[in-house]
């Protein structure tokens, strides 16, 4: 990192722990990481490893350069407003990983002149293969953008969007995307059973095929469409499956599903942020 910033994780749930565990695995100094939670019992293992663990959010905010807001969306307003004075006094960069909370609302709750990055990570961050979309308000410096990238890069790739509305599109692609693949793998394994395989064999073949296809896609210079064409021989077995998918309107089905996801993300913001 450009400098060893002190990072406070406000909330010690799964996403927060995935990020700071990724940082530690990459060599980030444990004594530069603060973790807060209401439960002293939950914090004890972190303290034993040398992290700065506290139940006092204000203490962590006073000490940090960057505060990762990792509480549940439904309590974000309460948490941020309760610590508005500390945020205003110490002015850490706020990085929110909560779904549905827009930067304007965070600014209203935290007070004026606060640098805010809104992040949409996804659950593969738990195994360091996540994808995070990032949006920065106008008060975020170039150094703070770089620091945010490096924090989230501990659990996967990071991509910036310039328009905050695009975060809802990120939600539809990568934020919710893992569930789409889980659903398709579920359907493939089920079909394998119906075609005569035992459940274990069908599932193992499905999961390894998904892994292999993903790895080929990420390691190849070819677009997914070209990779598909390369394994689809004319009048072959794969072509018949692809034609069946296309005849049933797979493109339209995916667009409709992802649009519904985007629309729900927009509605969630209205529910969580508008009085």
Automatic annotation (TrEMBL):
Is Transferase a UniProt keyword of this protein?
A: no
Describe the location of the Pyrroline-5-carboxylate reductase catalytic N-terminal domain by residue ranges. Answer: 6-100
Annotated EC: 1.5.1.2
Q: Which InterPro entries match?
A: 6-PGluconate_DH-like_C_sf, NAD(P)-bd_dom_sf, P5C_Rdtase_cat_N, P5CR-like_CS, P5CR_dimer, Pyrroline-COOH_reductase
**Its Gene Ontology biological processes?**
L-proline biosynthetic process
Q: Name one GO molecular function term.
A: pyrroline-5-carboxylate reductase activity
Keyword match Amino-acid biosynthesis: yes
Q: In which pathway does it act?
A: Amino-acid biosynthesis; L-proline biosynthesis; L-proline from L-glutamate 5-semialdehyde: step 1/1
Q: Which residues bind NADPH?
A: 57
What is the main EC category here?
oxidoreductase
Identify the main location.
Answer: cytoplasm
Which amino acid positions bind NADP(+), per UniProt? 10-15, 70-73
Q: Which residues form the Pyrroline-5-carboxylate reductase dimerisation domain?
A: 164-267
| Catalyzed reactions | L-proline + NAD(+) = (S)-1-pyrroline-5-carboxylate + NADH + 2 H(+); L-proline + NADP(+) = (S)-1-pyrroline-5-carboxylate + NADPH + 2 H(+)
Purpose of the protein:
Catalyzes the reduction of 1-pyrroline-5-carboxylate (PCA) to L-proline.
Family annotation (NCBIfam families): proC
* Family, per entry: Belongs to the pyrroline-5-carboxylate reductase family.
Protein name (Swiss-Prot/TrEMBL):
Pyrroline-5-carboxylate reductase
Q: Which organism is it from?
A: Marinobacterium mangrovicola
- Gene, per the UniProt record: proC
């Amino acid at each position: 990192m450009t400098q060893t910033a002190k990072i406070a994780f406000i909330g010690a749930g799964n996403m927060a722990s995935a990020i700071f565990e990724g940082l530690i695995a990459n060599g980030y100094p444990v004594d530069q990481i603060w973790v807060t939670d209401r439960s002293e019992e939950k914090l004890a293992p972190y303290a034993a490893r040398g992290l700065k663990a506290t139940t006092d959010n204000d203490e962590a905010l006073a000490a940090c350069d960057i505060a990762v807001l990792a509480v549940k969306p439904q309590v974000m307003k309460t948490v941020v407003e309760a610590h508005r004075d500390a945020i205003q006094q110490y002015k850490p960069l706020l990085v929110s990983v909560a779904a549905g909370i827009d930067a304007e609302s965070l600014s209203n709750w935290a007070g004026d002149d606060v640098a805010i990055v809104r992040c949409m990570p996804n659950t593969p961050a738990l195994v360091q293969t996540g994808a995070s979309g990032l949006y920065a308000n106008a008060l975020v410096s170039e150094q703070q953008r770089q620091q945010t990238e490096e924090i989230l890069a501990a659990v996967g790739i990071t991509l910036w969007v310039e328009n905050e509305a695009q975060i809802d599109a990120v939600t539809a692609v990568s934020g919710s995307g893992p569930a789409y693949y889980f659903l398709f793998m579920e359907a493939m394994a089920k079909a394998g059973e119906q075609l005569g395989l035992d459940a274990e064999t069908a599932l193992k073949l499905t999961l390894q095929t998904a892994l292999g296809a993903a790895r080929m896609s990420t390691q190849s210079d070819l677009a997914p469409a070209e990779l598909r064409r390369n394994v689809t021989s004319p009048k072959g077995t794969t072509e018949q499956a692809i034609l069946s998918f296309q005849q049933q309107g797979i493109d339209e089905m995916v667009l409709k599903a992802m649009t519904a996801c985007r629309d729900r993300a927009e509605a969630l913001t209205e529910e969580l942020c508008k009085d």
